[in-house]
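Translate sequence into structure tokens.
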Amino acid sequence: MSCEKKEDTPESSGTACNDAAFCMDYGTVNKSGNATLSEPPGGRYRIYWENTSGSTFEQVELDIYASATGSYSVDTNATADKAVFQYFSNTSGTNNGVSGTVNVTQFDPNGNGLSGDFMVTTQNGTKVTNGHFVNVKK
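Result follows.
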């Protein structure tokens, strides 16, 4: 499975992740699969993805500090109207997002879920592109 990027603008649709709920290109490696939505303390919504195949463990926590559709800047500080991105791997450790954008195009946490797209640059310079979350639900 791979994410498909249409023209120059990431677009959230039912096929953005080939029917998976989450996908992204982490550097040159595509990551995709199921994702869940939760509401941890602190006024945020978390989109959580993990891969536990074989001896590999990796996860993404994408926290959105807002409760509406819109465009949110990725930041290292957890503040209102921002987003925080964190990638973790048991082989390379934690890699936090330092810049980028999360676009929430559907905000319905108690119904159809959250949908949108994201692009992030991490603290070690890894580019996260073609990021999509589609109907991610609790």
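Note: The two ends are 23 Å apart (CA to CA).
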